[in-house]
Amino acid sequence: MLFEDTYKTITGSAEGLFKDKGSKFFAYAYPIEDESEVKDLVDQLKKEHFKAVHHCYAYRLGQDRTNFRVNDDGEPSGSAGKPILNVLLSKDITNILVVVVRYFGGTLLGVPGLINAYKTATQEALAEAEIIEKTVNEIYEVRFEFVQMNDVMKVVKEFGLKVKNQLFDNQCTLQLEFRRNMTNQIIGKLEKIEPIEIEHIATV
């Protein structure tokens, strides 16, 4: 198959906690759809945990899972953000932000200790989260004449397509949503109806 049409994410926020030699690592997992949400969520935690020394995070976005970023927030390079991201990669979760807030306990943990702490705190938060699998869907707009209505609706019924929007007049418009792996089959059937215009609107 050329591409996957499913991805895993979390349904809602979740929290976890890990302690080591007096240091406390509070992990917060959030479902996100866009990079613009990251700053607000991190800032919110900085206000709540203003006495904490570090607010490290990693996020992963997109159904193709290619958009990600890590932030060590003053911890030794690679000791915080990357271990958080590695847990997201190992569980193959996307559209997620995990922030780990650290309160220093007075004893240095060293880089191996930090890596373990940030990784474990993240795992604790994800253990509390509900992880679900979602399908990658396509939305197409179909424009046709009223006399083609029956032919178009036959295809809609045959594949059980979700109608997002509709306008019925002499010229009719339907916005249809369906799973990505059905695209070639559905578009192939619709293209046999003449005259018809089909336009890709979005991937969701």
Description:
The chain has 204 residues and is of the alpha+beta class. 30% of the residues lie in helices and 39% in strands. It has five helices and eleven strands, in the order βββαββαβαββαββαβ. The chain has helices at residues 36-48, 81-90, 110-128, 149-159, 183-191; strands spanning 6-10, 14-20, 23-31, 54-61, 67-71, 96-103, 131-135, 137-145, 162-167, 171-179, 196-203. α2 (81-90) crosses α3.
Key traits:
30% helix, 204 residues, alpha+beta, single chain, 4-stranded antiparallel beta sheet
Reconstruct the topology from this structure.
Blueprint: E1 6-10, E2 14-20, E3 23-31, H1 36-48, E4 54-61, E5 67-71, H2 81-90, E6 96-103, H3 110-128, E7 131-135, E8 137-145, H4 149-159, E9 162-167, E10 171-179, H5 183-191, E11 196-203
Antiparallel strand pairs: 1-7, 2-3, 3-6, 4-5, 4-6, 8-10, 8-11, 9-10
Task: Write a brief structural summary.
The protein is α+β, with helices and mostly antiparallel strands and 204 residues long. The chain is built from five helices and eleven strands.
